[in-house]
Amino acid sequence: MARKFEFSKLFINLLFTVLSLIVILPFLLVIAVSLTDEKALTQNGYQFIPTSFSLDAYRYLLDAPDILLRAYGVTLTVTVIGSLTGLLLTAMTAYVISRQDYRYNRVTTFYVFFTMLFSGGLVPSYILITQYLHLKDSLWALILPILLSPFNIMVMKGFMSKIPHEIIESAKIDGAREFRIFFRIILPLSTPALATLGLLISFTYWNEWFNAMLYIDDPNKVPLQLLLVRTLNSIEFLTTNSEFTGQLGIDLASFPNSSARMAIAVLAGGPMVVIFPFFQRFFVKGLTVGSLKG
Amino acid sequence: MLKNVSLTQQGAHAGAPPGKRRKTWISRELHHFKNNRELFLLSLPGILYKLIFAYIPMIGLIIAFKNYRYDLGIFGSKWVGLDNFRYLFTTDTAWRITRNTVLYNTAYILVGTSAALLLAILMNEIKAKWSKFYQTALFLPHFLSWVLVGYVAYAFLNHSDGFINRTLESFGLEPVSWYQNAAPWPVILILAQLWKVVGFNTLIYFAGIIGINSEYYEAARIDGATKRQMAFKITIPLMAPIIIIMLILSIGNMFRGDFGLHYFIPNNSGFLYGSTDIIDTYVYRALREVGNVSMSAATGFYQSVVGLVLVLSANAIVRKINPDNSLW
């Protein structure tokens, strides 16, 4: 009996090891390509182990770092402003909904929740942002459309409704008003949920490309992910339309090639991959506490 | 009118003893509002935000019934009735994108849920230290954008240098033009989706399993239950609420495809539209590449309405079977 038990554990571990490899290896391929000499790439194709190691791609990119640095700057700005504002608004709305004694609690819940079920869709939002709010080529077009997600509000509400109501009652007896209760008592007590959602929101902002594709044309305001989109598209376009490139007099050799393209991907995705394992444990906790048992 | 009169009277006789005159609805509500105004103020930014970015665009849906022109604006553009819809449904496009969206989402839900549930149950069987490592590895793609995953896919599928084609060649097989050959894409997309999201879903279910009271398992063990019996008799029934909520949400999103997955993994290649195009990618192209705003809006409208109907029906069905499991 005991032996059979051990065997099944070994099997499960083996299975997970294989799955983990399936997830991780593709990234290693991208990294390997970015580190391979361009000639070797055209000769041998993309391989996991570089046949001839070269840092040329990175040298090429870091030689004129303006575009990359600007993209980092845009993404960082958007991520910081978006996460902080988004988190505060999420917490404020969620707290109010979580208060069972709040008269408009059900109305507000429905008001928020309904936006999860039904939406105007892409076109009305696009027209609102470009024609009425005039946010085209503004960083706000990257921040505002994804500022407040109903799903996050529901997760936060799940957490906050577990805070004992007596705490709020006793604070009220001591003469605290709602704002003070929220900022001095509720927010500090919600730190685990705030950390979890804050991370989720900041990852969302870091990875934002859709609104960038829609609203950003100004080369100075291109965030990291849009830079990736453009690199992928432009090279595809140039290599498949060589007669067009010839007409324009563009020298293909001076354009980022395979390895440089993968190097951009590494530089854009790298920070996430490095940062994420440190925060991963919060997620398990936050998910357990937040959405599920409520 | 009457209410207004009594309201002013109420105001005039503020010092009058209570109960003398029946309070009107408005004055009662005002009174309540005063008591709740601070909480209301706290929720106001969120309410205003949703008003501007979620509710006002709903009004914009009337574009679907108009021939939208940027210079005339939403309200100045000419009404065309159902013309946009008629046009959409007479071409093959509507059928194609609807079929793709629904079939892909069904596949993602079935494959994704069962895989994640299985992995979560298995993960619960092994030591915490190792499961942490696997979680981290499987969870990783969740935090990378589809654009980046598109690069990863490109490294494998690229025609001349891609890993898969070079491997095929080294075995003496013909390379495949992945981005021009529509047939294998359903498989590629399902694998890509699974690869990116299975870790996150596993974690959600795993967190749910951890939350199950261990006494159930101990009692079952004493009664001599096998691992498989425990999984089917304890874990899955107790996980049902989470599974069902996730299912209702995904059924509601049945008409909403994953834009990133279907745009970046096939690299927006026109050869593949037949087997990769979904409503979302079509709406985007109609708006940004073709510039047919009204058509794009009509498609979006169709998508939103059917999505709403789907989630309402899914919830109604679940509520009928077991009210505790429904979303509301």
Automatic annotation (TrEMBL), chain A:
It comes from Paenibacillus tianjinensis. This is Carbohydrate ABC transporter permease. It comes from the Bacteria. It is a multi-pass membrane protein. Keywords: Cell membrane, Membrane, Transmembrane, Transmembrane helix, Transport. Belongs to the binding-protein-dependent transport system permease family. Residues 72-279 form the ABC transmembrane type-1 domain. The keyword Cell membrane applies. The lineage of its organism: Bacteria, Bacillati, Bacillota, Bacilli, Bacillales. InterPro entries: MetI-like, MetI-like_sf. Pfam families: BPD_transp_1 (PF00528).
UniProtKB/TrEMBL annotation, chain B:
It is a multi-pass membrane protein. It is found in: Cell membrane. The chain crosses the membrane at residues 39-65, 102-124, 136-157, 187-213, 234-255, 300-318. It comes from the Bacteria. Residues 1-11 have a biased composition (Polar residues). InterPro entries: ABC_transporter_permease, MetI-like, MetI-like_sf. Residues 98-314 form the ABC transmembrane type-1 domain. Residues 1-21 are annotated as: Disordered. Its main location: membrane. Keywords: Cell membrane, Membrane, Transmembrane, Transmembrane helix, Transport. Gene3D superfamilies: MetI-like. Signal peptide: none annotated. Belongs to the binding-protein-dependent transport system permease family. This is Sugar ABC transporter permease. It comes from Paenibacillus tianjinensis.
